Amino acid sequence: MPDELYGNIYDIQKFSVHDGPGIRTDIFLKGCPLRCLWCHSPESQSFGPEVAWMDIRCIGFKYCTLCRDACGKGAISESAPKMSLAAGEELTYPVIDRARCDGCLKCVEACPSTALYNPLRRVTVEDCMRSIRQDKKYYEKSGGGVTISGGEPMSQFDFVLALAKACKLEGFSVALDTTGYAPTERFMEILPFVDLFLYDLKHMDSKRHEVLTGVPNELILKNAEAIAEAGGRFQIRFPIIPKLNDSPANLRATAEFCAGISKAVDVVQLLPYHKLGSTKYTRLGRKYRLVNVEAPSNEFMEEQLKLFQSLGLNAMIH
Q1: Pairing assessment for the beta strands 121-124 and 6-16 based on DSSP bridges
Q2: Contact 184, 219 (CB under 8 A)
Q3: What are the residue boundaries of the structural domains of the chain, listed by start?
Q4: What backbone torsions phi and psi does residue 315 show, to the nearest 5 degrees?
Q5: Dist. CA 6–CA 151, nearest whole Å
Q6: Is the separation of the CB atoms in 212 and 37 below 8 Å?
Q7: What dotted CATH number matches 52-117?
Q8: Up-side HSE of residue 192: CA atoms within 13 Å toward CB?
Q9: CATH number of 6-47+120-317
Q10: Which pTM does this prediction carry?
Q11: Cβ distance 49 to 15 under 8 Å?
């Protein structure tokens, strides 16, 4: 096993029940070529280290100024006083000037409460396998396994391929959660080691897809068809974002595309938009751009479910 091969991840989540069948261990790789406006994991986007700040962990400048003292760029200043519910008093907190920050991570190293942290973790295949093996009994009893997710895991292809091979060698089911935006030949190479592709569809019009995600969709659709033709299995994921991709034309086109590869599709998950990841943008010093977008109604989602089911698809609202 190539222990010398490293991958960059931002999390390992155990006992997941939403990313493939059964109980699963999710390995989240860091870095993604897409910039979806609704992304609920902004920490997954950058390929490199970042400085994030979690306010509930911070003890405030009254008790600690180590982060500011460690910063050689003058990128950390003091906020206006605000009430700390945890401390029961007004405190001031670090404010990061992202234009001055050079990502040296000295502030992260100095922070005693891990309020400042770097989401990136550098791991080997064996590091991941040690965590995966701990839950073997849960996979066996539930029909679960390992889900390799992101970011876009195919952007770290050598590591992901080695991890998928290692999992299959030890008898673990493998699901690959992907945007589909990677060279077709890479999908063909990893296909023998993947039991299920969790595959995102976001918009069927390529120009609109590029506006919403930063990349066109021709390669994504081509790869879906190639995987289906080669015998791969799909769990299609389609996020429904009001005013962005919920037009009748796009909904119909998406359903028809799924129907076109239906022999390879185990299920289509319709995912109503939510804002659960919006606080993560604040931690990274970014603005969440969809603050005025609300979740689609239950009635609207039920209508779309009927549309997909009318084309013979096994669909569900997730």
Answers
A1: antiparallel
A2: yes
A3: 6-47+120-317, 52-117
A4: -120, 155
A5: 16
A6: yes
A7: 3.30.70.20
A8: 6
A9: 3.20.20.70
A10: 0.94
A11: no
Distance of CA 286 to the CA centre of its chain: 17
* Two structure tokens written together for 203: 């918009």
Lookup: tokens for 270: 């319709």
Whole-angstrom Cα distance, residue 48 to residue 241?
Answer: 29
Per-residue pLDDT of the chain (318 residues; tens, 9 = 90+): 445 799 999 999 999 999 999 999 999 999 999 999 999 999 999 999 999 999 999 999 999 999 999 999 999 999 999 988 877 899 999 999 999 999 999 999 999 999 999 999 999 999 999 999 999 999 999 999 999 999 999 999 999 999 999 999 999 999 999 999 999 999 999 999 999 999 999 999 999 999 999 999 999 999 999 999 999 999 999 999 999 999 999 999 999 999 999 999 999 999 999 998 899 999 999 999 999 999 999 999 999 999 999 999 999 999
Q: In this structure, which amino acid lies at residue 1?
A: M
Output the six-digit token pair for 94: 């670090």
